Amino acid sequence: MAVAPLFIPANRPGLFEKASKSGTEAIIIDLEDAVAPSAKEEARRRLVEVALPSVTRIVRVNAIGTPWHADDVAALSGLDIDAVMLPKCESAEDVAFLAGKLGRAVQIIALIETAVGIVNAAAVAASPDVSRLAFGSIDFCADIGCATGWDSLLHARSAIVLASRLGSVAAPIDGVTLGLHDTVRAQQDARRAAQLGFSGKMCIHPSQVAAVQAGFAPRDEEVAWARRVVGSKDSGVASIDGMMVDPPVIRRAEQILAQARSITAR
Q: How far is CA 11 from CA 38, 159, 227, 262, in A?
C-alpha cells in the first residue's frame, strides 16, 4: 500500500523515470489540476504513447461533469494501470458511474474535496469499487472558505478516517504539503496525519517522498514499546512503563510492529 504516492503531470512523461527513482511506492499520473486545459488532449495522448513507470500506477482523471472526464476515461482503455483516482467525488453514485465507464475491474481511489464529499464519505467508502479514500485538502479549503491549517481541517480529516473504517477500506491518504522543498514540514505533516489514522500522504515533489515515509514510520521508541507490550501479553503483566496493558493496547502494539515490518520489507 502506497505511503507516499507522487503526482506527475501526464503531459510531462520525461519526469516518469525520475519519479520512479524517488523511492515512492506509487506514481499518480495526473490529467487534472497539474495539466492546463489547453494541454489536456496532449496529456491523454502521451498517457497512451509513453511507457509508464514500473511502480504502482494511478491515474487521476478529471472530475465527473467536466468537459474532459469522458475522454480521460476513454484514454484508459487497455492501459496497464493499477488504480484510478476520482477527484471531487461526492457520492457512491459518482463511484458507480466511473466504474461503469471503466468497464473492467480497476481499483478506484475516491478523492474527497468538498463539503458534500465529507458528508457522504462513509457511503463513498462503502462502495464495492472503492479501495481507498484520499483527502483533497486544498480544494476542500477553497470549497468551504477555511484556512489550510491543521486546526481548521481536523474535523474533515477525522471524518475521512472514520468513513474509511466504517467502509472497511484501507486507511486513507492525506492531502499534500504545499512547500515543495520544505521536507521538515512534510515530515511533520505526515507524522500528524499518521497519528490521526491516515496511512499515507500525497506528494507533489520527489524531495517530499522520503520525508513523508519517515513521518509514517514508527519511531524506534514506539517499536521498542510495542515489542515489550506484545511480549507481555501471555505473562499476565498488567502494565508497561506505567501504562495499563489490556487487549486494545496489545492490538495497537501489534499494529505498530506490523507497520514497522512493512517498511522494512519495502
A: 11, 34, 47, 33
